[in-house]
Specification:
There is one protein chain. The chain has one domain. It is 32% helix and 26% strand. The strands form eight sheets. The protein has a five-stranded mixed beta sheet with strand order 1-20-21-22-24, covered by helices on one side. It has a five-stranded mixed beta sheet with strand order 7-5-4-2-9, covered by helices on one side. A five-stranded mixed beta sheet has the order 17-15-14-10-19. A hairpin with a 5-residue loop joins β4 and β5. The chain starts with 5 loop residues before the first helix and ends with a helix. The structure holds zinc ion.
């Protein structure tokens, strides 16, 4: 694939995607392999943004320095049909055409198809919030801070694609798979806990919360378990993938890039266990954060990191190992309904209002980008990798925790580990009963409540036997 003109290439590919892909929700692709000889290779790429780069969409302080590096961690699995990539990146989000472009580049590098490349963000906030279409919209305004620097954006994807390709030379046999889980103490809490007598949200318990009354309320609906899937070459653990559902922010907005508490935990474990590659995916945490346990003060970052680290450690210790017998891959396309209140003319008016704040103009650029993307019928891919009785579930954007819990009920005999923050296009994905409760997440949801039925039908197709 030519990478000489990324912008033109991106537009051509978006167009091709729009014309080729089916939009039917029943467009399930499924395959199952038995007696496989599976091979795995790992790669890690530094994706720390340069000084001056916007963080979290350009409405908080841009990069002034780096506390600790942002990283991309991936695996390539070979031997069960075309290769499969799972990739976790320390970004806030990667959305729409850019998400597709990255999947296309990685797929081309290792000889597979884009729907077999699952890319997820860990969702730190002192990190890039990438959407090429939103970037083009703000750039056209001339007076708005960038959303993502295109050179940096393309450089990251090209280096990751190259790293994935080079990793193939180091591929090892994987003979066994492990599943482990452990309760994480005092990290996750539901953000939508403070409600009036009708259930309507009165105030949000954010990623940090200074109000002792709201912090004293119960944890609410969360998934307390951190899950770990381990890959073994005989008795040697070569990769451990950890999954836990919480927003990963302790504090942010100071211009100091950081992989934050989940990244710090991952890095600590990696340093202690250099022979095993540790990867972390954020689960369906659209309405979950550390707010109950985080007043936003600096010392809490290390405290939360230690709790995640302990969870990873216990989960590894609790791991049960079995020989790999079956490997399956399923993916399904969905195209949710855009929020009926979205209106192109109105959005353009707000974006071009030069008296407005950056957040009040850059944010609608993501809304317009999503509206345009659904109009060109670029679907969202949901996918699942199955190995024996273990499944990874790959969900988009800020999926609410209820989707992750629902997936476990849909497949009660399967060990389901959920990664969300895949394609970030639709922002918050509440379940339908949460729309009447309003609150921040619902006000920033880009889809109609019908997204719930579409997502749930998709998850069923991926996980039901
Ligand atoms: Zn978020």
């Amino acid at each position: 694939m030519s990478i000489s003109n990324p912008r033109r290439e991106f537009l051509q590919q978006s167009l091709a995607a729009a014309t080729v892909w089916s939009l039917l929700p029943e467009s399930l692709q499924a395959e199952k392999h038995q007696n496989v000889s599976l091979k795995l290779s790992n790669f890690t790429v530094d994706i720390t943004p340069p000084k001056g780069h916007s963080l979290c969409g350009g409405w908080i302080k841009p990069v002034i320095d780096v506390t600790d590096a942002l990283e991309a961690h991936g695996i390539v699995l070979q031997g069960a049909g075309k290769p499969i990539i799972l990739l976790a990146i320390d970004w806030t989000a990667l959305s729409n055409g850019g998400h597709l472009l990255w999947r296309q580049r990685l797929a081309a590098a290792i000889g597979t198809t884009p729907e077999r490349v699952a890319i997820h963000c860990v969702h730190q906030h002192n990190a890039p919030f990438a959407c090429l279409e939103a970037q083009a919209i703000v750039e056209a305004q001339g007076d708005l801070p960038h959303i993502v620097m295109e050179d940096y954006f393309h450089d990251c994807s090209q280096r990751i694609a190259e790293a994935a390709k080079q990793s193939l030379h180091r591929a090892q046999a994987v003979t066994h798979i492990g599943k482990g889980e452990a309760k994480v103490d005092k990290v996750a809490s539901n953000r939508r806990i403070y409600r009036d007598e009708n259930g309507v949200i009165k105030a949000m318990r954010g990623s940090s919360c200074k109000d002792p009354k709201i912090r004293a309320m119960t944890e609410g609906t969360i998934d307390p378990l951190l899950k770990t899937i381990s890959f073994y070459n005989q008795d040697k653990r070569i990769t451990a993938i950890h999954y836990y559902a919480t927003h990963p922010m302790s504090y942010y907005g100071d211009g100091l890039v950081s992989s934050d508490f989940v990244g710090i935990a991952r890095k600590q474990l990696q340093e202690e266990q250099p022979n095993c590659h540790h990867i972390y995916f954020t689960g369906a945490a659209g309405n979950v954060s550390a707010g109950k346990y985080n007043d936003g003060s600096q010392p809490v970052r290390a405290v939360l990191a230690e709790r995640i680290y302990k969870g990873m450690h216990s989960s590894l210790q609790n791991t049960k190992v079995s020989p790999i017998k079956t490997v399956s891959w399923r993916n399904v396309e969905i195209l949710p309904e855009v929020r009926s209140t979205f209106n192109k003319e109105e959005l353009n008016k707000v974006i071009s209002n030069k008296a407005g704040s950056v957040v009040s103009r850059n944010r609608p650029s993501y809304m317009l980008a999503w509206l345009n993307r659904v109009e060109r019928k670029q679907p969202i891919i949901l996918s699942a990798l199955g190995i024996n009785d273990i499944a990874t579930l790959h969900l988009p954007a800020e999926s609410f925790i209820e989707y992750q819990l629902r997936a476990q009920t849909i497949a009660p005999n399967t060990f389901v580990a959920t990664a969300a923050y895949g394609d970030g296009g639709p922002w918050y994905l509440p379940v339908k009963e949460e729309y009447p409760a309003k609150g921040y997440e619902v006000s920033k949801a880009f889809c109609e409540p019908s997204v719930d039925d579409v997502m749930t039908a998709g998850i069923k197709k991926l996980l039901e036997s």
